[in-house]
Design goal:
By secondary structure, the protein is of the alpha+beta class. Among the domains are: 3-42 and 84-170, no CATH class; 176-290, D-amino Acid Aminotransferase, Chain A, domain 1 (2-Layer Sandwich), CATH 3.30.470. It has helices at residues 3-8, 11-18, 32-39, 86-98, 129-137, 140-147, 202-206, 208-223, 263-268, 310-317, 321-344; strands at 25-29, 51-54, 77-80, 103-106, 165-170, 179-185, 188-194, 232-238, 244-250, 288-290. Strands 9-8-6-7-10 form a five-stranded mixed beta sheet. A three-stranded antiparallel beta sheet has the order 1-5-4, sandwiched between helices. A hairpin with a 5-residue loop joins strand 8 and strand 9. Helix 10 packs across helix 11. The radius of gyration is 25 Å and the shape is globular. The N and C termini lie far apart (61 Å). Residues 47-67 and 343-348 have low confidence and may be disordered. Bound molecules: adenosine-5'-diphosphate and magnesium ion. The site of magnesium ion has 2 residues, from strand 9. Residues 62-76 have a biased composition (Acidic residues). It holds the Pfam family D123. This is Translation initiation factor eIF2 assembly protein. InterPro entries: CDC123.
Length: 348
């Protein structure tokens, strides 16, 4: 995979070309201070509310009271809040409103799909910049976009300069069973895979032929020869009326999940087989179509490994205030132990 291919798959490159066939979206340049904030591990995300804690101890006596964290509002407290970006925030809010109040956020290539568990609604639906920050700061996919977008590229030319962008897409209730990933090689649609391969969807096996032909028609009429590359992967959605929509464009290579195919098969040049019939599709001039059949039962969700223990989640969202207090007590205890050790000095 070449760096050029990755550059071409940025949202702002393909959106103007295929605007009519995809979900309405707004692209906002991401200011450098926002990028820095997203990459800063140390900043606590506290939106709206303020977290206060005792900043310093006033005396050194060992009274019982000191074991408790004191929550007060006097001068000795410090306030930890997320930084604010008033100008950017108002642009984002304006765009969200223009898109109907609820959006799906992404960067140049990726959405924070690995972080949906952290949101209170367990979804990527956002209504404000702080909703977006919570997801972005918790996502390895977003960090990948910001720090190593060209990691899987084989050419050793210098990395192209990237202008980072926040993409806000109108929220759309997509049914996972209607999503398909299409592999295009040398401008030819060679394979179609069900996107949510962890589930078996009856309608797919029943309507296999019509799904495949509507996707082929969509590709031929609206996408083929119109994208700057001849190798790419497109994600589509077939709605309940049978209309096909473009959802995303991805590089043709390892960085993109090959789903029910393997990259070895896709790049080998050999003709691909359908999963259902096992038939060689080369003679039929139509793409191989793969979906999960009923024999395959429960499969783990692909993003499961990104999750962390419930305790940490409660802490991070502040849902369980007592856990947060326990955590702070624990921290305070550790710090005291450390400072006691320092006071004692080196033992001889
Ligand atoms: N506008 C939207 N509203 C709601 N859900 C969406 C929207 N766009 C995409 N999705 C869902 O999110 C998934 C990932 O979106 P996608 O743009 O392909 O991100 P990525 O490239 O990071 O995988 C899609 O498969 C779809 O289920
Ligand atoms: Mg994608």
């Amino acid at each position: 995979m070449k760096k050029e291919q990755v550059v071409n798959c940025q949202f702002s490159v393909w959106y103007p070309l295929f605007k009519k066939h995809t979900i309405k979206s707004v692209i906002l340049p991401l200011p450098q201070n926002v990028i820095d904030y997203l990459l800063d591990d140390g900043t606590l995300v506290v939106s709206g509310s303020e977290l206060t804690s005792q900043s310093s101890r006033t005396n050194n006596s060992d009274s019982e009271e000191e074991e408790d964290i004191q929550w007060s509002d006097d001068e000795t407290t410090t306030t930890v809040t997320a930084p604010e970006f008033p100008e950017f925030n108002s642009k984002v809010q304006e765009a969200i409103n223009a898109l109907g109040g609820r959006v799906f956020p992404k960067l140049n290539w990726s959405a924070p799909r690995d972080a949906n568990w952290i949101a209170l609604n367990s979804s990527l639906q956002c209504q404000s910049l702080s909703d977006i920050f919570l997801l972005f700061k918790s996502s390895d996919f977003i960090t990948h976009d910001l720090t190593q977008p060209f990691i899987h590229c084989s050419d050793d030319s210098p990395d192209p300069v990237i202008n980072y962008e926040l993409v806000l897409r109108k929220w759309s209730e997509l049914i996972p069973g209607g999503e398909y990933r299409c592999f295009v090689k040398e401008n030819k649609l060679i394979g179609i895979s069900q996107r949510d391969y962890t589930q078996h969807y009856q309608h797919i096996s029943k309507q296999e032929a019509s799904i495949s032909s509507s996707i082929q028609e969509f590709f031929r009429d609206h996408i083929q020869y119109q994208f700057p590359d001849e190798d790419f992967v497109l994600d589509v959605y077939r709605d309940s009326r049978g209309r096909v929509w473009l959802i995303d464009l991805n590089p043709f290579g390892e960085v993109t999940d090959s789903l029910l195919f393997t990259w070895e098969e896709l790049t080998s040049g050999n003709s691909l087989t359908d999963n259902q019939t096992g038939e060689d599709t080369a003679l039929q001039e139509c793409p191989a179509f793969r979906y999960t059949t009923s024999e395959v039962t429960v499969q783990p969700s692909p993003c499961l490994s990104y999750r962390i223990p419930r305790d940490f989640l409660d802490l991070s969202t502040g849902e369980d205030a007592y856990k947060l207090i326990d955590f702070l007590k624990l921290k305070k205890g550790q710090q005291e132990e450390e400072s006691d050790e320092e006071d004692a000095g080196p033992q001889s």
